[in-house]
Amino acid sequence: MKKIHTNVIKQLAELLNQLSSQNYSQSLCVLNGSSIGQHTRHIIEFYQCLLKGHKSGVIDYDARERNFLLENDLSFTLQTIEDIVTGIEAVSDIAEPLLLAVSYEANHKAYIDTSFMRELVYLIEHSIHHYALIRIGLQENFKEVVIPENFGVAYSTIQYREEQFG
User: Fold this and answer.
1) What pTM, to 2 d.p., does this model score?
2) N or C: which end of the chain has fewer CB within 10 A?
């Protein structure tokens, strides 16, 4: 599971390496004014919350730092991705029980049983969803960027297409 997950996040780094810093942080109409950097920050901060929660025992995705360096400084972002890969690979027990903090009402948090592995599965799907949006931004604005065929496509969709179309 960890290998699949680190491959997913490394896909993002490989794509970002093709962008200039200006393109990375540029507001894009097709993304409703968001940038590739803003979507990337969002993805990365979910991973950071998972790693922080692994240490504390409670994962809280709402407690993201919202670090603007991640959406504006491409070098910092690429280093942070490497740190996340290292952090994921360092987790020895991915089945370890954790709690997930959720808050859908003001001043009320609920805690749900989960595990590092379950949250990795969630973050794969969450990341791929944002990759699909990043892909749209790249295709519309940065045609020189080479986008892998399956970037932003769910694993189940890739498998389905292979079964149907060989």
Assistant:
1) 0.92
2) C
